[in-house]
Amino acid sequence: MPASGEPTEGARRTRILCATVQVPADRNWRARGAQEGEQVRHLRIIALCLTALCALGATAVASASAETLPEMWECAKAAKEGKVYKGHYSGKKCEPSTYHPEGGQKYEFQPFTNAKPKTFKGRGGAFNWSIENFSTISCLKSSDTGHFTGPRTVGHIVIAWTGCETAGLKFENTAKEGEIRTEPLRAEIGFFDESKGKNVPQEVGIDLRPESGEYLAQYHGGSVPPVLNIRWKGSVIGEIVPGPKSPYNKFSKELTLNFEEIGGKQAIEKFETGPKDTLVAETCKGCEPTLPEDNLAWSSEMTGKGEELYLKAV
Prior knowledge:
Blueprint: H1 9-19, H2 34-68, E1 71-77, E2 80-81, E3 84-85, E4 107-111, E5 118-124, E6 127-131, E7 135-139, E8 141-148, E9 153-162, E10 165-166, E11 169-172, E12 180-181, E13 185-191, E14 204-210, E15 215-221, E16 228-234, E17 236-240, E18 251-259, E19 261-262, E20 265-266, E21 279-285, E22 294-312
Antiparallel strand pairs: 1-4, 1-22, 2-3, 5-8, 5-22, 6-7, 6-22, 8-9, 9-12, 9-13, 10-11, 11-15, 13-14, 14-17, 15-16, 16-21, 17-18, 18-22, 19-20, 21-22
Helix pairs in contact: 1-2
């Protein structure tokens, strides 16, 4: 599919198919006799039917494409047929000005295929976890790594926070005091229901969950018994923030995620289509955590940088 401003594949097919249907221009068919006039009338009916089918086909293609969004796209080297490339772009960034409808070009604008993993590394500032009926744990900064595994999926994500504490009590799950690292996580992107009243269409979020197992992270506070054990399960949705450096409908090497908490609850709790996705904290002093006791909400912003991708949201 071409970049913004270029004809879609469905539109190109429609234009080609409909261009092959021609109605005789001579409208004086009565002078040629009833038989010839009937033939022309039939041709006109056929032309109208094919035009309607063309329009329906284009609509179907557009609808099918819209159902797959949002997706991460890339400008990748096109496949070859013999010695000839099958792409439609001569530019390495698939700029609209380098689009060639006839093909034969070296590059193609397409959904991300994971043929070459797109890795990223990110950093964030202060991070807060609000655990209902318990406390708020604050960390000074964060870092993260991972890579895109498909048009809508991310994998091998690990987030680390440092300087984590509440009321002077340090929390950690590594040898470094105050450092918490997640288990390996995966994520999926999707449109979400906007609950903040911005009324901005096509907003995209990312849903984080464990890559395997049940828990996103497990950690403890204090070294003298009774030790406070905490672990999280479930999933959490953050917003992919629009902006000048955002990949929304353009290529960018930078992506910013915002996790917002409102009144102890996650601001975004579900995608437009899908179940409610929230976090639960299990807490226990001097023992292993057992049943869920408290709701958990994240509040922070993280910015990741990596190779260029295009977030196709329209």
